[in-house]
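[audit] Reproducing an earlier prediction to check determinism. Same input, same settings, fresh worker. If the tokens differ from the archived copy the diff job will pick it up downstream; this log only records the rerun itself.
[audit] input (159 residues):
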Amino acid sequence: MNQKNLPARQGKSRAEILDLMKPVSARCDPQQEAQNAALVAFELDAVSEKVSRFGWRDMDPRMKDRLTDDWVDVLREYPIAEVRRGISDCLDLQSRCPTENEVKAAVMKRRRMALERTPAIPEPSEPLAQITDEERAERKRFADQVIKGAGYALNAKKG
């Protein structure tokens, strides 16, 4: 799947990072979205096997499906690379299998840190000062002179 992930280094603008934070459904076609959801389900299976969540190997397949559905419902809108990093962050803090909401919190924390590392969008510059009547008259005189000069040049070319 060709999805861009949040940058680990500086170099992206705040607008580019915000664009990367759009939900998968807004950034990808339905096939890529379904593939991302399947990969989220696979990650649950992998991490559950790794830390033997609730006796994952011995669990009834219907219960596994239910837990997998919960994970997919919560995490399907995040790119799989962010989900994997979120799982890794959770496993660094605890030895048990994280819940889908803990993974989501880890993803959101990384996103918040990515935004904090980028410069804020600059404030719009101050509005231009009002033009006085005197300045307006001076500009009109200058424009008239330019137009006159152009008129002479045009007449000279014709003649």
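[audit] rerun output stored. Observation attached for the diff report: Residues 9 and 84 are 18 Å apart (CA to CA).
[audit] end
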